[in-house]
Specification:
By secondary structure, the protein is mainly alpha-helical. Helices cover 76% and strands 0% of the residues. It is globular, with a radius of gyration of 23 Å. The two termini are 38 Å apart.
Length: 277
């Protein structure tokens, strides 16, 4: 009994330490965003600002076009999420229902593709987009985001499709419905929670993405929010810490809000594939 209690205490202590480790950067970011320049230069920093100020937020908007960059990020993220879901839904249905070698190979590709580092794929992607004349365009960036989000979107949706009882589709087939009609009228409505979760996850991924946007977008008017945040760092590598923290805090809020909404649905999608109907 004592061993069991001690084990639980150890587990909770480890979990608490992990949560503190994850929360520390964000809490320090929030604290920094509301500190005055004098407090930021103090040799004895504190968690809670002594004299909270909004000057960092005003300066951030004055120095950089944050609203325009946020609009670019929003447009790219929304387009990528919608397109990825539209492509992934029928593909996931085929992969989940067809037990062919091609479906198994596609599943293997989904798993293996997650191991590819960004540096490995950026050069081929750059060359392809150059041939398509999509360099320095939001359309090219959306195309890259869709390709990058598809494997995980497929993985999530396959789990949701497998959780849908096959008897419902068999009943639809008896009534004379074809595969497409069955997918649209029977399966898709039951997949609505998974489709929403997948779309929101693709949105978060695109909203936070930095590397592809940095390489592919050169015109300042087309740059996304993560790229614009780097402009708060001077040529000598010295960061304008207060405005940078304020802008980064504002850029992080949408991701946190969306993830708080969908985290349970994401977990359900990951576990759905383990449940046999």
């Amino acid at each position: 009994m004592r061993t069991s209690t001690a084990g639980r205490v150890g587990q909770y202590a480890a979990l608490l330490g992990y949560l503190v480790f994850l929360a520390f950067p964000f809490l320090w970011l929030v604290s920094t965003a509301f500190k005055s320049p004098r407090e930021l230069g103090s040799l004895h920093p504190t968690w809670i600002p002594r004299h909270p100020t909004l000057d960092n937020f005003r300066q951030a908007f004055d120095e950089q076009p944050l609203l325009r960059a946020a609009g670019n990020s929003l447009l790219a993220a929304l387009a990528a999420a919608v397109i990825a879901v539209l492509i992934a839904t029928p593909l996931a249905y085929v992969m989940a229902r067809q037990r062919t070698r091609l479906a198994k190979a596609a599943t293997g590709w989904v798993v293996v593709s997650q191991a590819f580092p960004l540096v490995l794929v950026i050069i081929p992607l750059f060359l392809v987009l150059k041939e398509l004349r999509l360099i320095n365009s939001l359309a090219g960036l959306v195309l890259v985001y869709v390709v990058w989000a598809l494997p995980f979107a497929l993985w999530m949706l396959v789990g949701y499709v497998r959780a849908v009882p096959g008897e419902l589709e068999e009943a639809a087939a008896v009534d004379g419905a074809g595969r497409l009609r069955t997918l649209v009228s029977v399966t898709a409505p039951l997949l609505a929670p998974g489709i929403v979760a997948t779309a929101l996850f693709a949105f978060i991924t695109a909203w936070n993405e930095f590397f592809f946007a940095l390489v592919l977008l050169k015109t300042p008017e087309k740059q996304t929010l993560p790229v614009v945040l780097t402009h708060f760092i001077g040529a000598e590598g010295v960061a304008d810490l207060g405005p940078l923290a304020a802008a980064a805090f504002l850029a992080t809020l949408p991701s946190l809000i969306v993830f708080a909404i969908i985290q349970r649905r994401i977990t359900g999608g990951m576990l759905a594939g383990a449940v046999k109907s």
